[in-house]
Amino acid sequence: MPYKIEQTGPNEWVIRNLNTGKVVGHSKSKKDAEASVRARLAGEHGVQLKK
Questions:
Q1: Interval 3-51: pLDDT, tens
Q2: Domain that includes residue 38, residue range
Q3: Total domain count for the chain?
Q4: Is 48 exposed, middle or buried (0-12, 13-18, 19+ CB in 10 A)?
Q5: Distance between CA atoms of 20 and 49, rounded to whole angstroms?
Q6: Any idea what DSSP says for residue 21?
């Protein structure tokens, strides 16, 4: 699914699912939001992340 990162405040970023328009996550930095999107995309494709 495609995602979009949007800044909603000085230290607030949301991750929005472009298919549904729903907010699926929040982050305090753009860097963290980008990492979250990468993890979401990897999970959708069956990749298991190392801890």
A1: 999 999 999 999 999 999 999 999 999 999 999 999 999 888 877 767 6
A2: 3-44
A3: 1
A4: exposed
A5: 25
A6: -
- Radius of gyration of the CA atoms of the chain, in A: 11
Domain annotation covers residue 20: yes
**What does the alpha-carbon distance between residue 20 and residue 4 come to, in Å, rounded to a whole number?**
11
Beta bridge partners of 5: 15
Between the alpha carbon of residue 16 and those of residues 40, 49, 50, the distances in Å are 12, 22, 25
pTM score, two decimals?
A: 0.83
24: left (phi over 0), alpha (psi -120 to 50) or beta: alpha
What gap in Å lies between CA 14 and CA 28, rounded to an integer? 9
